[in-house]
């Protein structure tokens, strides 16, 4: 936990908090500067909850004590991780709404990049570069991220497969071998369909890379590698809405590391562009 943002952890775990814990989460996000100087009794009073709830909350965030929680939170404050962005979106004030959307997206990308572990990222890039086949699996609103990843990897010469039909993805996952890699994308990390495909991949000996915003989720814990995406949005009905931007950012990071400085990747990109040039106006 000492290397991660506690603010990012609160966002990623928000849906798993009980109602009383969500009171604490909301208060910490909105008043991080003040919380750093509070004791647990003062925070409990401010949130209209109990000291026991505060204790459960900080442990869910991956820290053992309220003191340690404040230490990590103080670092977030210094680094600007606690910056509050308005979630107001209204056609009555388009200028302000666009500014709010821009700030949310920028915070989301910044937080996602800050969560990437350098050692793990290096290992993931090496794994993907040598894979015989990369299957990218997703269901629901993360499917477009998987389809985009397939195209990006294909155009630099990496064999990759993604699909919009779950049954097709499931059947393909049963064909993976120890030379293959699966990338599993899920917001919550609790998709039963994705979990089934991960089990198939592991049974075949393939390595699994998970992209979720919850490091404690089933999918994150099942995977060999976990790349955490961040969410900084609270736009719809006061609930946290999963943007594809953070997951897409991770895919683009992988793409760039797999491309830059690799002559073979440039050759494939050039060939791909030449094949499609006649289709452009």
Automatic annotation (TrEMBL):
Every HTH rpiR-type domain range: 4-80
Gene3D superfamilies membership: Glucose-6-phosphate isomerase like protein, domain 1, Winged helix-like DNA-binding domain superfamily/Winged helix DNA-binding domain
The record's section on InterPro entries has: Homeodomain-like_sf (IPR009057), HTH_RpiR (IPR000281), RpiR-like (IPR047640), RpiR-like_SIS (IPR035472), SIS_dom (IPR001347), SIS_dom_sf (IPR046348), WH-like_DNA-bd_sf (IPR036388)
The answer to whether the entry has keyword Transcription is yes
- Output the Gene Ontology terms for molecular function: carbohydrate derivative binding; DNA binding; DNA-binding transcription factor activity
What is the top-level taxon of the source organism? Bacteria
Name of the protein: RpiR family transcriptional regulator
Q: Which residues cross the membrane?
A: none
Task: Give the UniProt keywords, A-Z.
Answer: DNA-binding, Transcription, Transcription regulation
For this chain's UniProt record, which GO biological process terms are given?
Answer: carbohydrate derivative metabolic process
Domain spans labelled SIS: 124-267
Q: What PROSITE patterns does this protein map onto?
A: HTH_RPIR, SIS
What SUPFAM superfamilies has UniProt attached to this entry?
Homeodomain-like, SIS domain
Q: Does the keyword Transcription regulation apply?
A: yes
